[in-house]
Design goal:
The protein is mainly alpha-helical. It is built from three helices and three strands, in the order αβββαα.
């Protein structure tokens, strides 16, 4: 019926283990710890460990305390955020460069078309209009894309 009866039993019986009393026994110059008072020698009841992080739990891989590890973690997070900010700035710059290049290409194309219109036009009003259009296209290109 149950698939994991041993796991269920382990979970049920392990809940009371953390609240048991621990006795420190001293006999003949030797110290031992047990869950019952000593049969020989002196026994002392130890208080339960405080809730939260114990001093043994604060030691990290480098042997530092919790505050040092927290400071290192904060520094790592700040460094990662700075790198992400720089990457976003680089992406924004690349996008702006691409947009500017497209605009310059469009202006070059307009200048080319204006020059072609000027070459095809005859003397007179159409010629003057085409010449003005070609001059304006060249000026617009020179302002936006100097090079």
């Amino acid at each position: 019926m149950f698939r994991y009866p041993f796991m269920l039993a382990a979970v049920l019986f392990s809940t009371g283990l953390h609240a048991q009393t621990v006795y420190k026994c001293s006999a003949g110059g030797k110290t031992s710890y047990a869950d019952r008072p000593c049969a020989q020698g002196t026994s002392k009841t130890l208080p339960p460990p405080p809730a939260g992080i114990s001093a043994a739990d604060t030691l990290g891989p480098q042997g530092g305390d919790a505050r040092t590890l927290l400071a290192l973690e904060k520094a790592r997070i700040a460094r990662e955020q700075e790198q992400a900010r720089e990457e976003r700035g680089q992406a924004r710059q690349a996008r702006a460069t691409r947009v500017h290049r497209q605009k310059c290409d469009k202006l070059r194309l307009r200048r080319k078309w204006a020059d072609e219109d000027l070459a095809r036009s005859v003397h007179g009003r159409a010629y003057e209009a085409a010449r003005t259009k070609a001059r304006r296209a060249a000026e617009s290109l020179a302002v936006e894309c100097p090079a």
